[in-house]
Amino acid sequence: MEKMSKRERVEATMAFQETDRTPVYDLFLHDGCIKYFTGKYAPVGEAGIRLKCQTIHSMLDMTRSADAGPRTPGRREDEDGFVELYERWIELGIEKRPFDCVMEAEQWLEQKIERMEQTYKNEDISAECEAFLTRFRQIQRYIGDDTVVLLRQSGTGLDELRYRLGLELFSYLSADRPELIAAYLDLHTRMEIRMIHAVADASLSPCALTYGDIAMKGTLLHSPEWLRKEFFPRLKLLNAAYHEHGIKCLFHSDGYLMPVMNDLLETGIDGLNPIETAAGMAVRELRRQYGSRLFLAGGIDMSQLLSGGEPEEVKRICKETIAEAGAGYFIGSTTELENTAKLENVLAMLREAGMEV
Predict the structure, then answer these.
(1) pLDDT at 199 over 90
(2) Cα–Cα dist 349/301, whole Å
(3) Contacts for 40-46 with beta carbons within 8 Å, 24 or more apart?
(4) 1 pLDDT exceeds 90?
(5) Which of 50, 233, 267, 273 has a 20 to 30 Å separation from 211 between CA atoms?
(6) Three-state SS across 73-136?
(7) What is the set of domains in the chain, with CATH numbers?
(8) Looking at the predicted structure, is the pLDDT value of residue 163 above 90?
(9) Any idea where the Uroporphyrinogen decarboxylase (URO-D) domain is (predicted)?
(10) Contacts for 256-260 with beta carbons within 8 Å, 24 or more apart?
(11) What is the mean pLDDT of residues 328-335?
């Protein structure tokens, strides 16, 4: 088959058409790969982002968060008083919150919603949209070819609020003040939909990420009933907004999603990522049950295989997964390609996908 461009390969895969090789999709945060493909160690700042993008050019057909570069490890405090710890590539979590109990968390959330309402009512988002599009085009130039960068990452606010409150306080407020949780999710979703309609352009990217980490190993983080009331209807609105612009939606959630897969399909998702095998997900079972209703991205275990396995084992698993998935599959890790993955294992995965690296 004649060699395809990356965008052609991505669009054909999302349409379940034949491709010249298996496309590769991942979130990329790997110093060893940067050194392998560029010969340099990525510094902090814009120069590090450039090297990351140069490596993406060599490795991936589709990616997201390409503008997130390496940082000096440390801590930072945001405008709300949350102190977060972070390493070179990843956040480590919240060290300090501006509240210590349910009552204080409730007061913080009420004030947060009031500020969001004022922002939504009064804010002219034209400058924000222009800045977003300018940066997106700049990152595309850094990558330097037709590698597909997911246009935007859109959530309902569930992940952000649960992270800010912590799971325990989030659970208490969900039980005691469900209308407060719903008000935050409504506002966040409406604000995101406004941004989608302002920046969506299928010529920039044929795909966007909609997300919500709603599961963990072997089970869901929230009951199916709660998700059907508070999460899925808002996710459906996000997917519909992108579809109005001819953009497909790759949905991301870690964990075991099988109990609510039919609900997810009803929200209009087009693809699923990362297919966390260590949590109980399986490419073979997804393809058996849902066929060409869902393109798949991921499925190559990061927690043990890419981090602790050997290249021959990686090659075998990748070959089996590609065969099980058939058309409509992007090979990639079950989380992100980060520094715990062995370089030789990452290269083995890329070679099994048909890349010359």
Answers:
(1) yes
(2) 11
(3) 42/69, 42/70, 43/70, 44/69, 44/70, 44/71, 44/72, 45/69
(4) no
(5) 50
(6) CEEEECCCCCEEEECCCCEEEEEECCCCCHHHHHHHHHHHHHHHHHHHHHCCCHHHHHHHHHHH
(7) 6-71+121-158+201-352 (3.20.20.210)
(8) yes
(9) 173-351
(10) 256/215, 256/216, 256/217, 256/218, 256/219, 256/220, 256/280, 256/281, 257/214, 257/215, 257/220, 257/281, 258/285, 259/220, 259/224, 260/214, 260/220, 260/224, 260/227, 260/232
(11) 97
**Tokens standing for residue 168:** 């325990």
Cβ atoms 216, 278 nearer than 8 A: no
Alpha-carbon gap, residue 138 to 238, rounded angstroms: 25
Percentage of the chain lying above the pLDDT 90 cut: 97
Global pTM exceeds 0.90: yes
Cβ-contact 158, 214 below 8 angstroms: yes
Question: How does DSSP classify residue 67?
Answer: T
Q: How many CB atoms lie within 10 A of CB 19?
A: 19
Would you say 25 and 149 are in contact if contact means Cβ atoms under 8 Å apart? no
Q: What average pLDDT does range 314-327 have in this prediction?
A: 98
Residues in the chain: 357
Helical (H) or strand (E) element with 56: helix 46-59
Q: Which residues lie closer than 8 Å to 164 by C-beta, 6 or more apart? A: 80, 82, 94, 97
Q: Which two tokens stand for residue 305?
A: 């295989």
- Asked if 272 and 286 count as a contact pair (C-beta separation under 8 A), the reply is yes
